[in-house]
What does this fold into?
Amino acid sequence: MVFMIVHVDSAMNWRGGQQQVYLLHRQLRLMNIESVVLTPKDSALLHRCGNEGLEAIAGSRPWHLFSKSVRDLINNCHILHVHDSPSATLAAMAKRVWPSLNVICHRRISFPLRPNHASRWKYRRVRHWLCVSPEIKQQLLAGGIEANKTSVVPSAIDTTRIMKEAAEADIEALRTELGASRDVPIITSIGALVPQKAHDLVIEAAAYVQKTFPEAIFLIVGEGNQRTQLEKQARELGLSDRIHFTGFRLDVPALLKLATISISASINGEGSPATIKEALCVGTAVIASDIEAHRLVLGEKGILKPVGDATSLGAAITTMLGDPDRRQKMARNAAKITGKFHPEAMAEATFKVYRRIIGSEEKM
It folds into this structure.
């Protein structure tokens, strides 16, 4: 059976969701499955696919799904796989034009479904949901989605690329860039500068850590609408020279390799956190907030602290910085669990869902 899959993602920037679309698209093509990405003109995903020779079509926001250039594409596809909420809305509207369209919606955020009428109308037009964690599946069930319309497929990381970039990283050059000598500990907090990522708690924790390790440097890696607020917080705590706001970086594997400890203090919303997986992949010790998504990925390979507790987080960082043997043991154990996050596993599990949906359609 020949499949044609059209992936739709409406974001302009490059975050975890776009990385997952790219990895899935790339792996499906390696499996000789016809896969196409539809994304806005000048989006980061469009450029990434283009740079690697992966088929992607530029549409104009917000109505690119209905433009003449993609009508034939939709007419001939077997699965319309939408990867964010705006795309799911467009797909629901497209069902009025193409009633038999098979819409799969990928759910990567751990928030309850919205109960309003418009959202319920949209959800009813999704044929199947792909959830990156069991927690997200349970939220869908609580929101009224039938169990047989949901599947759990964990997100992937590009383990080969991450390990290669980490191995080739010029750590001394990075330390020079940061003004950090070889013995200075470096702690990373990586993610969009938005409330759910709780970088403000990391900054509070940094103030605690400075009492014992005044030389420690914290890297806040990412961009977002909280940047000005977070920079002000760091200044007010007298930490401007110890907390570096790096902005968006493409060399995250190198930064994780550089790091003594990687932190994820998120308070909610995480589905299957890539940054923790990447830290484990390069063998960096992880301390994270005790939310379901972190427990699922880390297991006993990291340290979990109460959600929203900056003092507990700071104490854990301080203890870990003072125990290099424990950090090394954690690093050795961490790399053992990343195999299940290969893109191959994600693509194969997703393809099984495609086959099940199309197979059931042919029997009707």
